Amino acid sequence: MSSKNSLTFTRIGIYIILAIILIITIVPIWMLLVNATRSTTEIQNGIGIFPSSHMFENYNILVGKGLDLPRGFFNSLIIALSTTLVTVYFAFLTGYGIVAYQFKGKNIFFGAILVLILIPLQLSIIGYFRFMSKIGLADNYLSLILPSIAAPAAVFFAKQYLESIVIPDLIDAGRVDGCSELGIFHRIMMPIAMPGAFTLALFTFVASWNNFFNPYILISSRDKYTLPMLIQTLRGDVYRPEFGAIYFGLAASIVPIIIIYFLFSRFIVNGISMGAVKE
Amino acid sequence: MTISQRIKKINPGYFFITPFILGFLIFGLYPVVNTVYLSFTNTTLMTGHAKFIWFDNFKNLFIDKMFVTAVGNTWFLWLLNFIPQLGLALLLAAWFTNVRLKIRAAGTWRMLFYFPNLLMPATIAALFFSLFSYYGPMNQILVRSGVLSEAVDFIRNPAAMRSLVIFIQTWMWFGWTTIIIMAAMTSISVSIYEAALADGANGWQMFRYISLPLIKPVLVFVLVTSLVGGMQMFDIPYLLTDGRGSPTNSILTNNILMYMKFRSSQGHIGAASSVGVMVFIMTSVVALLIFYLLRDKDSAAKKQAENKG
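^ Those are the sequences you sent over. The predicted structure of the assembly is below.
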């Protein structure tokens, strides 16, 4: 009886701690979203928990100050969608090659991919920038999208996923029906691999959407700025007194991700553990 | 044999991996070689002609002390966010997977704790900059509740800014670590815990002697990926203050220094490359050391578990 009571107390204690962690996790984001709807005067007068009605006013101030938010939104979307398509397609193509065929050097190739995952960006970015400037692709979105053809972490994920779903009999059946090897991949394997491809797509999209460092190095024209690059300019003197407008700009950059997460959190949470635990 | 016959003889697996290999050679390997080459030259963005200057860039890194400061800061900021992050994740994962505690809605808690990780770091940095600015909400709360007698200029306080970077990094990453560790813990067979429970083991003993040894490979994975990521820390410290690691270089990290050299008025991309190369060497040595030190003990733990199971 007494051990049952102590278990109950332990449980209550744990729930209290979880609630505190949850508050710390959520409050900064909640304040950001709420302040995006409050006027600068309201923000300066004190902290609010509930949304106000100045969202459009904040948007107009922001655009009036010369921040082309829709443009940045559009730029980021184009880059993120292209990067996602290229990454997912080539990752599954490479992963399928590793899983479905036996060839000489296969293990060395896969081992090399594991090592490549750990190579930091710092080691290539300056040389990459120089290379892109020389061939005229600096300040061009292609310089952000093309490296996705060889994304080692994505290949690792695709390979792990394909291993659990590839059925050799199905591949053979495709061959008997006269499908080419590439045709088998496109018409038979990819449809089966869709849930995994979608999970990888979510991660790639979010990573590209949030990426600040690469475009900051490679992109220089103002009209090509991505969303994080525009966010970075919000700290400037032009916007300083307009707290409401600043919060609006910040909120606009994370709302798409919030929506994606609450629609597809199951894919994302499962996807994280999928890459790490299977050895 | 005609050409088409020859092509048909090649294992199709090679065709599937060819785009990756080409992409890697062009967009992965060549830039790395190029960076290493540039690190031995005095190339700038302005001048066309560059001289090969051997190790001068590397010597200069250690002469002007900025590099040493940046490396020290990066290690400090990484370690101080990794340790609490890992501790918190282990605690949460142990609670969520404990068969006796039966925490409700573990999946929902975990999903919410992971949430900050997906948000744009640029936005998070700008948000915390506003929250902690002189007229910002943090000062409002602290002054009105009487904790502080007058507003503090957090943004110009080195200790405050370091703590804030550490807090934000922990805040953004503890959910990710929790998910990974939980996945590792749930892959441990329940029967091992049941046997321990029958033998009268308490929660701490089960965690210490069953969970911890069995999840060690995953802990190594978390440690190494966090290390590699931490050594590249940029967005948060760069955007939290003026982009120069202010106040007084207290949050100047490796990548901020590299960026400063890259975007200096001359554009010293040779010198910037040398920062990247040095940090890569340092990270690799430490990562290999971690693998080496934790390797034998791993297989020993696995064998032990197999014998027990």
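DSSP finds 14 helices and no strands in chain A. Chain A touches chain B through 85 residues (CB under 8 Å).

Shout if you want it in another format.
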